[in-house]
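ERR on first pass: missing label on line 2. Operator R.T. fixed the label and resubmitted. Corrected input:
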Amino acid sequence: MQDPQHLSADVLVIGAGGAGMYAALEAARRGASVILADRSLIGRGGATVMAQMTVAVALDDEGADHWEHHYADTLKAGRGLCDPALAQLLCEEGPARIREMDAWGVGWAREAGRIKRAQAPGHDRPRCVYVDFLNTGPAVSKTLRARLNATPEIRRIGDLHITSLALDDGQCVGALGFHVPTGDSISISSKASIIATGGLTRLYQRNSASLNMAGDGYALAHAAGAELVDMEFVQFFPIGHLAPRLIGMDPIMWDPFRYKLGGRLLNGAREEFLHKYGGVDDGKYVATRDLATYAIVKEAAAGRGSPHGGAWLSFEHCSEAELRAAGGPVIDRLAANGIDLRRQAIEVAPIAHYHMGGVKVDARMATRVPGLFAAGEAVGGANGANRLSGNAITEALVFGARAGESAAGFSKKDGTRGKREETRTAEVPGHHTASGFNAAERIEALQATMQQDVGPFRTEAGLTRALERIQDLRRELAAHRPRTGKPFDTTVLDWLDLDTMTRVAEVVARAARARTESRGAHQREDFPAMDPRWERSQVV
Ligand SMILES: Cc1cc2nc3c(=O)[nH]c(=O)nc-3n(C[C@H](O)[C@H](O)[C@H](O)COP(=O)(O)OP(=O)(O)OC[C@H]3O[C@@H](n4cnc5c(N)ncnc54)[C@H](O)[C@@H]3O)c2cc1C
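pass 2 clean. output:
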């Protein structure tokens, strides 16, 4: 292993999804030197690049909408738990970010020159802008990457896995990590740091996550002394693809079809069923995600599910022309998978998709640790107990910009880089000892536990069982800490992920066990009603 490398910048941004890239751009725009680090490729890892369609924003052209309407819908969906300051920031500043992305050439779909808007569940009017045919996430990422390329003040470092934050007198002064291709230790000193590492849905067996969505930012922030909020609220996307087998396409791709065509959600007997659970479907896509998830899981549990245990989603009533207009080239990709929507319904079921909880910040995106900020899905509170479609990309862009602004300001006024040029050397765990311990296999065991006992439905007994299993896994992994480093050591990455995932899983399960009610995405079978005494957030 080579000598550890030391780097420094005014602002360190950890994670290069939508939030991290926007944060880096904003910090640079305000005169800061920036390091943008990501454990995978810059702008190509995480959720942003995978986003399918909706970006919720109240564009007020021709009096069509106002941010206060968006804000009211967001609060309603959050079931009383939204942090009002964060929700307001998301809704009020969304239009400026979406127009800035437009000016940067993202390519929002247009009709007669006007940015088009789709109607999405929980919004009181058409409010979701998009780049057509499942291209929203790729277009957002590509646009931000192009801006980064034109901003020399930002040093981009991919394949840099951050493993801890560096503290000096309780202030965050940078981070420690290692370069995956070489195994080398890296330490970075910064006057201000931003956690933009996205969410945690890889904790679950059925998820829409990429490998790097293991909750790293929550573990980093918590270990450094920051607070976490609303950690029990994991959003399950109700109509994740279940069957038939679909290769090379995202499991949540049915969303855009439903926005445009409605579609029919049916049980195993091909009957509409959402009304039995207080929702409406009848060919309209209006039920919020928590309600639809609840209805599908309950209907399947009652023996009325589709053959693979979900629900049918049918577009069989649509004409070929309608399907083609809605799906464009996606229809051909479906055909390559042997799927013809005019002749067959597909099966869907809930899939872990987004995390409402996260690092607790104020409206400047500052944590309680001086010098430490957070942005994007890593932040908790804006969406309360349930997120509306489209709010996550807006959140990433708005919170990213705000965090970049605040971190650059902090680095000018309060930063400590002069005091401490180098953080201490990272302690990088190295390759696997020949102990037979397989961390990748244990990750699968953890995912199964989380799905079974900390999933869409929870009970005291299940949550206690999950916590015991998580403790067992933590004991096992502590006894098998890898020793020396080597290039591209996936066993080390698995061990680190298991370490992070078990820490974060424990926080989620504990918060879920403590909340003895059902609210939004958190459904307790032993406490099925919403309890007004629980109209408050839990802070870890
Ligand atoms: C399949 C899918 C479709 C979606 N569709 C929509 C949609 O249509 N509309 C909508 O509003 N939302 C959608 N969402 C949600 C939305 O995409 C995310 O909430 C949002 O993009 C999060 O952005 P982010 O920048 O906070 O995090 P991400 O984009 O997830 O980026 C986080 C980055 O942090 C990096 N990272 C993590 N840990 C470390 C570490 N230890 N060291 C260094 N780097 C690290 C990761 O590699 C990653 O690049 C979708 C999500 C998924 C998964």
